[in-house]
Amino acid sequence: MPNKISICYEILFFCTLLSYNHINMEKLNNKEKRNHYGVLRKTKNFSNRIEHLKGNIQTEEATKTSIILPFFQLLGYDVFNPLEFVPEYTADVGIKKGEQVDYAIMINNEPLILIEAKPINTELSVKHMSQLIRYFSVTKAKFGILTNGIIYQFYSDLEEHNKMDTIPFLVVNLSKVEKNVAEELKQFQKDAFNVKNILSSASNLKYMTMVKNVIAEQFQSPSDQLVKALLTKNIYNGTKTQAVIDKFKGIIQKAFEEYINDVISERLSTVISPEPVISVPSDEKAEPILNTDETNVLNYIKGLLNTSLDITYKKTSRYAYMQLGELSTKWICRVYIRKEQHLFTLHKFENTDYECEYYFDEVEQLDTIQELIKDTFEKCCKL
Known about the structure:
Distance between the termini: 56 Å
Radius of gyration: 27 Å
CATH architecture of the largest domain: Alpha-Beta Complex
Order of helices and strands: HHHEEEHEEEHHHHHEEEEEH
Largest sheet: 6 strands, mixed
Number of helices: 10
Number of domains: 3
Strand order of the largest sheet: 1-2-3-4-5-6
Shape: elongated
Structural class: alpha+beta
C-alpha cells in the first residue's frame, strides 16, 4: 500500500502538471506534441500488455521474446536486423574470450548501446552488472541497459570516462509509467537518438533522482544529522542531546507532512480558482513595492550600520533586500517576511566563516548578529 508521503508527491506532481502543462505545451510544436503523447500512450499500452502476460513468463528467453524485444521495437529499432540490433554480441575482454552481452544496438557499425537481460522475476542489483561493465570499457558503447523486462536501468560513464557508472541515470519501470520518465525515454527512440543531447541531461537527471531519493528518506525518517542542522536555525538553542534529537524527529516529520499538505492545498486552490491575470505592457510594469514590515526591517539594519554611504532598497517577488548603490552584486542582506518566522540572510562571501541565515519574530532579535551584519557590509564595500 502506498505511504502517505508517496501519495502526497503524486498529488503534488499532478497539481503542478495542471498548473503548468498548458504553458509547457505552448512551447512544443505540433510534431513534438504528437511525439510526446505518442511515446507516453505507446508505453502505457505496452505496460498493460506486460501486466496481462507476465504471469506466464518464467524464463530469461521468454522475457526477451515477449517483452524486451517488443520494447525496443516500440522505440523504433529493427530487432530482426543484425546490422542494427545484434543478439549475443561478442567482444573479447582481457583473457576472457567468447563472452557475450545479450544485445548491442549498432550505429555506424559500432555498438553504442549494450543490453544485459535477466528473467522477469529477477531483482536487479550490482551483481548483475559485471558483464555489462566489462563490455562497456572495451567497446565504444556510451550507454548500458540492465533489464528484467519490466525495469530498465540506463547507465553511462558520467563519473569516469569509459568506465560505466554503478548508479543509473534513468530508471524506467513499465509497471508504473510516469510522464516525466516517458519524456526522457523519448530521447532513446531511434529517430530521435542523439548522444550529446542525452548526455547533456543525463548527469542532472542522475543526481536529481539521487537527491529526490534522499529527500524521500528524510521525509519518512529524519536523520540525526538533519535534525541537528534544522535545530541550529534558531529553533532550539539548548544542548542537542540524543533525547532532544529524538523528540524533534517526530515534530520535524509532522512539519514536513503539514508543509506538503499546505503546498497541495495552495496548488489546488490556484488550479480550481485561478486569480485573473491582468496583462500590463512591458514598458509600464512597475517594480514590486516594499511593504511596511520589509521597510521597517531594512531601516533597522541601516540604523545598525550607521553609514553615510548610498544604500538602496530593492524588492523581488520573494524577498526585499538592501544593497550599496545600484550594483546588485553589492547586496548586503535579504529579508523574507512570512506568516510564521521571518528569515534574514546575509551576503555570503568565500571567506565568510559564520552562519548567514537567521530566523526572527521581532526585528530587535537581529541585534545579536550586529557585528556579523557590519562585517558583511564591510566586505560589500570592498567589492
